[in-house]
Amino acid sequence: MKNSVVFLICLFLWVSNPDQLVAQQALIDSLQNIISKNNQDTLHLKALVNLGIALERTNLQQSKANFLAALAMKNNPDFNRLKATAAIRLAGNYSATGSLDSANYYFEKAESIIKSYPSDHKLAYNLYSGLGIHFNRIGKADLALDNYKKASVLDPSLIGLDNVAGLYINMANVYQSLDDQKLRVESAYKALEIFEKTQNKTGLSFVYNLLGSINYQLKNYSESEKYFLSSLEYRKLLNDRRGEAVVLSNIGNIYTDRGSYDQAIEFFIQASEINESLGLKDQKGIALINLGKTYEKMGDYQKALGQFKEAQKILNEAGISKMDALLLTDIGKVQRMLSMDQESYANLLKSSQLAESEKQYFDAITAFKNLKEYYQEKGRYQEALMAQTKEYTYRDSVGMEALRAQLKEFESKYALDLKENEINLLKAEKELDKLELSRRKANQNLIMAIFFFLILLAGILVNKYRIVGKTKRLLEVERLRNAIARDLHDDLGSTLSSIHILSQMALQRETNGSNPVFSKINTQTATMMDKLSDIVWSIHPDNDNLDQLLSKMQEFAAEMLEPKEITYEFEVSEGAKEIKLDLEKRRNLFLIFKEALNNAAKYADSQHLDIRLTVQGGKLNLLIKDDGKGFDQTLIKKGNGLFNMQQRAQMMGGNMVIESFPEIGTSIQLSAPIA
């Protein structure tokens, strides 16, 4: 069963996105197959580098191992370009995990190789782009921009359109660090324009995330969420775990701002777990900051402070300083809420100074706003006014309204250009996509139809096999029960009957008719014959339904009560006669009924009995109530009869309640499940 479930899930994933999953796994399998041959040639080296790149977004440790294996191959001039690529990617991996010394070492190694190939623009682009990402990550925005500018003058026809678009995205991230929002938006839309042309899914996942961040900063939450969700869709499609964590954290920020804190925390924890598994210190630090902000808004300042300090520790260990001002502001703010006045003031003052010196204007706005609130709390209104002036100065310099207008202008312009200049190309592409989609859907529908037909057929065959098997077993059981009932009646019954008759004859021949041995034999054989009759009756399959049992119960009641002139009322609820009970339950029900009537007839001195059998809620309920002399349950010793009745009720899976009061009467109520 477990294997079947796994198979179903795998088949569903393949049907949902067969090309992507199969192509990705086929690539990895193919590269691993080449590497396993260990030919130590150019093909082997290419496989190591490409496998390292393929695993960068899902398994950094294995990715690093492949790049290191590539660099460890023997010295060969034909290998140099591939080794330079491996060194650049390896440096980027070390940068992402906070190992800055290793990152610098491999960037220098790559640069020393690339100097020998001044005309290789693609190799130069990889180096400048890698250095740009590295410097922006550790907060050196100016150095990052310098490297991106070097990459931007390279021949676009040699480095490829997708790489040009990637450069725009990287530059947009630097412009964010430099608080140049105009150029940031412009770069984002240039990247989008190219990726829409090339339909590069990886590129679109990055640019949608960038546009989501821009709209989030402007508090356009609906637009922001739309872009983030589009990015997340692509990340999952591409199995980009690193990118998925980034987007999850960004979506969490939206939920925090909207006040949906529990959902926000779920997103941040998911992002943090992915970053932890990949060893990404910078992203883990960002997730912790976001988590701290959420706890702060929830009013849990102690927990928020813990998250901020943990983030500060991780980012410091990774050598990442670009978030120092923001973190100091967050720490100072929650310390103010916790009445840690001295520490709060020191951190808020330091954050405002750092944001100013680093020209981080958005961070400066937040820092001076919190510093103003601190001064107001302490009654230092002159200093509060100075902080507020700084806050508004930086707010004006950023120009939020102008930025919103510019964003709308770019959106409109982009949409217009797309319609006017590329409409024919897009139409053709869409038609091709529709045809491809129709073909895929037809294949998927066919596969799903066959798949579900096979499941249905298998279910029908299994069910048929079970029904046939069950029917055969029931027939065999019925034949066996008939045979047992017949043998008991014909053999054992006739033997007991003969013994009973002989004992009666022997008693008649005795002169006084009082021989105790013959009398005892006569009594016991009569009792045994009575019990045997009950056993034969219960075993016989013709008596399986409740109707037959009710007839026997009414017959027994008449035999037991009428000679003693005890009146009774036997009431059966509608539908009860059609119910079927298994052999054991039917026997136990009848024996409980017999014992209860015996007790009422022999000991109760009652004049009338009420007997009711009802079916309700899947349970069978039997009530036997007399108007006799009753008994005190605390004084009377329970005999075998009452004990056996309780035992039989438990064997039926039910329970029995006995209520009796002196001079009022006794009631016995049994409740047991039918099935």
UniProtKB/TrEMBL annotation:
EC number: 2.7.13.3
The Histidine kinase domain, residue ranges: 487-675
PROSITE patterns: HIS_KIN, TPR
Coiled-coil ranges (or none): 400-445
Molecular function terms from GO: ATP binding; phosphorelay sensor kinase activity; protein dimerization activity
Segments traversing the membrane: 446-463
Record-linked SUPFAM superfamilies: ATPase domain of HSP90 chaperone/DNA topoisomerase II/histidine kinase, TPR-like
A single cellular component GO annotation: membrane
Keyword Methyltransferase: no
Keyword Membrane recorded: yes
Keywords annotated in UniProt: ATP-binding, Coiled coil, Kinase, Membrane, Nucleotide-binding, Phosphoprotein, TPR repeat, Transferase, Transmembrane, Transmembrane helix, Two-component regulatory system
Residue ranges of TPR repeats: 125-158, 245-278, 285-318
Signal peptide stretch: none
Pfam families: HATPase_c, HisKA_3, TPR_12, TPR_8
Catalytic activity, as annotated: ATP + protein L-histidine = ADP + protein N-phospho-L-histidine
PANTHER family tied to this protein: NITRATE/NITRITE SENSOR PROTEIN NARX-RELATED, NITRATE_NITRITE SENSOR PROTEIN NARQ
Protein name, entry field: histidine kinase
Species this protein is from: Mongoliitalea lutea
